Fold this protein.
Amino acid sequence: MRSRWSRISWWNTTLVKRLAVPLSRRTFLKSTAAAGLMVRGGFAFAAPVSFKQGDFEITVVSDGFLQLPTAFLAPGAPPAERDALLRQSGETGERYQSPVNITLIRTANDLILVDMGSGDRFMPSAGKLWDNLAAAGVEIGNITKVIFTHGHPDHLWGTVDDLDELVLPKAAFYVAAAEWNFWHSDNALQGLPAERAGFVTGARRNYAALKDRITMLKPDDDVVTGVRLIATPGHTQGHVSLEIAGGDGLIVLGDALTHPLISFAHPEWRPTADHVPEQAAETRRKLLDRVATEHSQLIGFHLPYPGVGRVERQGSAYRFVSA
């Protein structure tokens, strides 16, 4: 029988083979260029982007990018319409690069990280957060709080190192109770195809390291004054986003909107990654209507780096306008 570690390692290797393609140096360089990154010291580097939001300083840092099958994008959509949008976004091959944008919130008293990336156990093109923070002059030991939007690998697996020990042992951690309960429930495989069953193993491994340091929250709870959780379920059962006060408002989306064309032009189309597709589509519709009406700024975890922009109405649909 395989040991626990060998089972996890075997599954991770299998997942990477299914979801990613081997990266030669030439392919890697082309992919980093497509994702708006450059290679520095052996890792994918993107200069951090910072701006003021009310009383907060917001910085977006790259964790690299994911290599995913293009077929994951709205497989049930009308092929002609889907293919036209994919051509418009330059995604005509079998794979596409999905940026991974992580938000850092600086307050008068705290340095708050939203999600922790994928670490080194998911895809070789991702897991660059700590290198990019260091290159940006951010000392990770100064991070005081971490908020998780949900438990997928590219958001959670950077929590522990290769010894399953916390990367940020001094930080406080926050998670939506509904999300925590989902990944620990007997129904955790609901909405996951068989080849992604290991997501549950990985989520439980990382959450286990946090069990004595975690604070459970619910939508509308504040993490600190001016930073609160909002419910955006469907991508996962307990998925949340963050609303940050100031100006017209800022919403850190997590994976509520993941593609710069499809999510906005056709929120009803259903990407493979959503656990509860109907609920996720309804979340997208309500969220797009809200941010377009309120002129809120947003940060998308998988939108083109740095993922910052606004939403405009376009006929009966919407479009993303990058900042």
About this structure: Residues 114 and 147 are 5 Å apart (CA to CA). Residues 4-78+94-247 form a domain with the Metallo-beta-lactamase; Chain A fold (CATH 3.60.15.10). Residues 1-35, 39-43 have pLDDT under 50 and may be disordered.
